[in-house]
Design a protein that fits this description.
The complex is a heterodimer. Chain A is mainly alpha-helical. Chain A contains six helices and no strands. In chain A, helix 2 packs antiparallel against helix 3 and helix 4 packs antiparallel against helix 6. Classes of the chains: A mainly alpha, B mainly alpha.
Amino acid sequence: MRKISKSRSDQDYDDFDLDMDDIELDGQPLRSAMALDIFISFMTILAWIWLALMVVGMGIALYLTMVGMIPGFEKLADIPDNVITIWTGVKVIGAIIAILVLQELRKISKTLLRGDPFVPRNASRLRRIWMTVAIGEAIRTALMFMVMLYVWKLDDLNFANSWFGDITGLNSGSKEIPLRWEVWSMVLILIVLAQVFRQGAAMREQEKLTV
Amino acid sequence: MAIRVNLDMILLEKKMSLTELAERVGITLANLSILKTGKARAVRFTTLEALCRELDCQPADLLIYESDDDETK
């Protein structure tokens, strides 16, 4: 008894001696939850393949920087080595973030399958998701900014007709900081939703202990 | 919490098991043991009504107030 009133005053709903996830539920999982779970698992596999490819790409870039030209990669010769390395590094970070987010989504999906997603643990998972996306995007912006600075410094360097300029988006030529507003707006939406979810989970917690 | 649910004593008096009561009242055994062990935060009037009906008692027989000083004794 005393334990409960103590943890209640701490506002920490995860600290009950009674495990919220163990309480019998009358909730039924949605039929689409199963499809969603399979889709997330599939995306996780794709993300791992993507990460493997990007790590190989970064390995090649590092080899080009440190050792020298590999036959077949002559096309890359007119692009500064460190630009390629940083750019592949950005891709590796992107893949890692995708995997981290997908792992959290899978855990949330498991609670959906159990029929009761409104648990405090899911609230902290949502918080972890937006933090991962925000930190990853901040790192990406910093790295891409480094690439931009490098490109701006070299006047004779021209990406205008290069395939590399196309895929990196450096072709536009204008000097703008590589901020992606769509990602930051998504982070903002995720923050708001995570907060709403935290409140909802706390309410559900109260409801679970109502007999 | 200062409010205690006196379910144990009444069940003993009526010679009824917790499982039987759960079946009669129509709430899950898990929820009933939350009530019995004092972990419940709130009781619905419908639940209270069903408990009183099946146990043939008054709400006052089920709920006992103890001041916090007694608890620390």
